[in-house]
Amino acid sequence: MPAVRIPVLVTQTQKPDIVMLHALLYIPSQPDVVMLHELLYDDITTTPLRVLVPTVIPIGESILRPRFPCVESCMGSDAVTHDCVVKVKDRQGLTHHFLIFSQFSEEMPVNDALEAVRPGTIWRGPLIVMLQGRNVFVTSMGGIQTQRLAGLAVAKFLGAHIEMASSTDGEYIPTTVPDN
């Protein structure tokens, strides 16, 4: 992350040996909206698509005021949207967190892109994978390595869903996936 430069106004006081520094900070009056590159698994293709997800960055972004991804703009609003955090480790043992937004409805077509990730999976509805940041809630999906890890997170999510669906009425979508 690049260093942030804060403009400073220097003023002289009545006493010549004291100098006052005033930071000139830009404080937006409205939240910003950024477009984050993420992965969409949908029924229109057998591979994930890179899509731009509009994300609201609130004024005073913090843990208590996180970014808000508007995933329904890419997935539609035909079904309830669920979210789930999945952790996967890379080759160096570093843990990456992915936020998976999913919709499921018997009326939706079978998602061929998810069947390609985990053969035999029947999933009806779209799914978006977003990378959780280290200092922010969500951030843009990185390169090929991060996308590969996102695919592992989706496979882990689908596996957890299949296990839970077999022990419930089939309508349950996990909100967390146990670490293995």
Outline the structure in words.
Strand 6 and strand 7 form a beta hairpin. The two termini are 31 Å apart. The chain has 3 helices and 8 strands; from the N terminus they run βββββαββαβα. It has one domain. The protein has 180 residues and is α+β, with helices and mostly antiparallel strands. The strands form 2 sheets. It has a 6-stranded antiparallel beta sheet.
What is the helical fraction, as a range of percent? 10-25%
- Rounded to the nearest angstrom, the distance between the terminal CA atoms is 31 Å
Please list the strands of the largest sheet in the order they lie side by side: 5-4-3-8-7-6
Low-confidence stretches: 1-10, 19-23
Number of strands: 8
Binned strand content: 25-35%
How is the biggest beta sheet arranged?
Answer: 6 strands, antiparallel
Count of domains: 1
- The pLDDT mean sits at 81
Q: Radius of gyration, rounded?
A: 21 Å
Number of discrete helical segments: 3
General form: globular
- Output the helix-strand order: EEEEEHEEHEH
Structural class: alpha+beta
Architecture blueprint of SSEs:
Layout: E1 8-12, E2 19-23, E3 32-41, E4 49-57, E5 68-69, H1 72-75, E6 81-89, E7 95-103, H2 112-117, E8 127-131, H3 144-167
Antiparallel strand pairs: 1-2, 3-4, 3-8, 4-5, 6-7, 7-8
Output the keywords.
3 helices, globular, single chain, 6-stranded antiparallel β-sheet, 180 residues, disordered N terminus, 19% helix
Question: Quick summary of this structure?
Answer:
With 180 residues, the protein is an alpha+beta fold.
